[in-house]
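WARN retry 2 of 3 for item q-0093 after timeout on previous attempt; input resubmitted unchanged.
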Amino acid sequence: MPTNHNRRGGSTRQRPTTPPLAPRPQDGPLLTLEVERLAYGADAIAHTEEGKTVFVQGGVPGDTVEAALVQDGPSFSKARVTRVLEPSAYRVQSPCPFASVCGGCPWASVSYQTQLAAKRDNVVDALTRIGHFDPERARRLVAPCIQPGEPWGYRNKVELAFERRGQRAVVGMHDAGGTGVVKVDRCLLLESRYQKLTKAVSGALSYLANSHGLAIDRVGIRASRRTRDVEVALWTEPGPFPRAQAAKILGDATSATSIVRVLTKGPKKARRVVGVERLSGAGSWTELVGDERMTVSAPSFFQVNTKGAEKLVDLVLAGLAPDESDVAMDLYSGAGTFTLPLARRTSWVDAVESYGPAVRDLRRNLERAGLDNADPVGGDADREFPDSDADVIVVDPPRAGLAQDVVRKLSGQPARAIAYVSCDPATLARDLARFEQEGTYAVESVTPVDLFPQTFHVEDVTILRRR
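OK item q-0093 returned
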């Protein structure tokens, strides 16, 4: 059962139940399982009577379920729930009618307090299992998971998938199995006023693709409740494209303030952006993060949860306590979520970002903000590591975490504190162990922030203090 929280997930009302799911041709034998806990992943964990681990799709801690075996490996198995025999006190009825078939919110049937507790537990587990931290120390270091906003309607961005079924184009969400596309008429994770954009974009693009025989890699929708900006980005390979028709059809369907085409080349899992075409409108999207107005181009990374991004900034600034005499360093700076507030509070910021579109966005955001005390450098953080001595440092790397050489170079800095923002507990735990092995910095605190309710993902802000 979940730990470190009360039973607010349950109630005296009738517990939600689920009808049995139709068997699939690939389903194996049926198992009766007692679900134990949530994994760091879309599934829950149970064990057979023989003690073998089973990852259970659709399970909630405390459930007794009937589950069809879908994969039987030597060390673990995978199964999907076909019937809930005895629902857990932590099981809730999801407000999303597509939750069982869409892959966007795998924890939608889990009470929100249970989700928060599980995310903290997963961070503690990563520190002990991967970082080899003492279990008691890990529990002391990791704070309760913070809820920055509502558990639904929090996203400023969703992505739609595209596939062809014969001559027909289908635009929708990736299904729960990750192998196909399911059509939805709304996404309850999007900001409430924009939840039906998914249906509008899906219908418009299906019509456009069927009329012109188009192939589209994916579709990005960004929508801001604060600025009212809406951008639709079509990711395609270079080649002929009905630009005017796409702009008109999508514009009529969505009233988007920006419609762009992102041109990509290369293998499917390693595509690179070779250009962005503005089809109509501004050609970019803006959002307000705290007091900062940020402009972001379609290829650039930006946190999908705006209130969550603000909470990350608050935690970073509180942990670093920068002042006007400080020199700051911001590695993996993106479009400037941390660079801009640091530039307002310090004498200088060295910002390094490897992704070209994000570097251009950062320069534009600094110029618009009237800040000339930051130097955005494009390139790999290891090769372009700043040669100045920093007083405070922020690192916000991608899921792969920090290279060993970057940890070593950071450990050679005279900074009094480092704020490490991470989206992956496993690589965070590995890197924190490396920092402590270097001996210059010790982990002071780890604060999980729930930027992704209804999913297993969690963001963490770690403060490392100079010994």
